[in-house]
Write a structure and sequence with these properties.
Order of helices and strands: HEEHHHEHEHEEH
Shape: globular
CATH topology of the largest domain: Jann2411-like fold
Bound molecules: zinc ion
Strand content: 5-15%
Number of helices: 7
Strand order of the largest sheet: 1-2
Radius of gyration: 21 Å
CATH architecture of the largest domain: Orthogonal Bundle
Helix content: 40-55%
CATH class of the largest domain: Mainly Alpha
Length: about 230
């Protein structure tokens, strides 16, 4: 069994803030977005959130969900992918050479960019780690790519950039092939495929797989019953 890495868990949780079946959305307001980021330790405390950042989050989520349908054979909507690409451009990442510390932070990290290496930049990074977005270094593992939200981003964007970093990690490691949106569109739950050959198409074979089978069976029966041609 391929254990789900932290980065994939974060992307999955973000994608599943919308529940198609129950028709609920945990990110329906800017406040809820801030709460979600706090819950996932990507923001230190709830704070007023710019509606523009909320829109950014929803576009990122919509595009990610489209992309996650690809492994089950769904065709993504190009306009949703394009909007997510735009959102990602507002969430810059930095590659680092420093190993993450145990607490998930990256104290003393060296960045590949920024106005000055060390000195003030390092102080700012440490300050960022201690306050808002302190854990927004994201779920980067010691063996995974060292990608982090740009430290100059404002707190909410830094939290969202951590989701972007997690997505980058999932793509780079190839784990994106196991992260899927259920092929049953009435469900569309995002799940981690633990199967050996990464062949699962439904979040649950028992529920969604059987629903699909039953529908196909019913469709087949109805075509069989349809008379070949009207008489006369
Ligand atoms: Zn499902």
């Amino acid at each position: 069994m391929h254990e789900q890495p932290a980065a994939a868990r974060l992307v999955e949780a973000f994608a599943n803030t919308i529940d198609v079946e129950l028709d609920t959305d945990d990110l329906s307001t800017p406040e809820q977005l801030a709460d979600w980021l706090v819950q996932h330790r990507l923001l230190a405390a709830p704070r007023p959130t710019d509606p523009a950042d909320h829109v950014l989050a929803l576009r990122l989520r919509a595009g990610l969900r489209e992309r996650l349908g690809v492994p089950v054979g769904d065709r993504p909507a190009p306009e949703l992918l394009a909007e997510a690409e735009q959102a990602l451009r507002a969430l810059p990442l930095l590659a680092t050479v420093t190993l993450p510390t145990d607490d998930g932070g990256t104290a003393g990290r060296a960045t590949t960019g920024g106005p000055a290496a060390g000195g003030a930049a390092a102080d700012r990074a440490a300050a960022g780690a201690a306050t808002d977005g302190g854990t927004a270094g994201g779920p980067t593992s010691p063996t995974g790519p060292h990608l982090h939200p740009h430290p100059d981003l404002p707190p909410v964007r830094r939290g969202l950039a951590a989701v972007a970093a997690a997505w980058s990690e999932v793509v780079i490691t190839g784990d994106a092939a196991r992260l899927k949106r259920c092929a049953e569109h009435g469900c569309a739950w995002v799940f981690w495929d633990v199967s050996k050959n990464r062949s699962r198409r439904w979040c649950s074979m028992r529920v969604c797989g059987n629903r699909n089978k039953a529908r196909r069976f019913a469709a087949k029966r109805s075509t069989e019953r349809t008379p070949a041609a009207p008489a006369g």
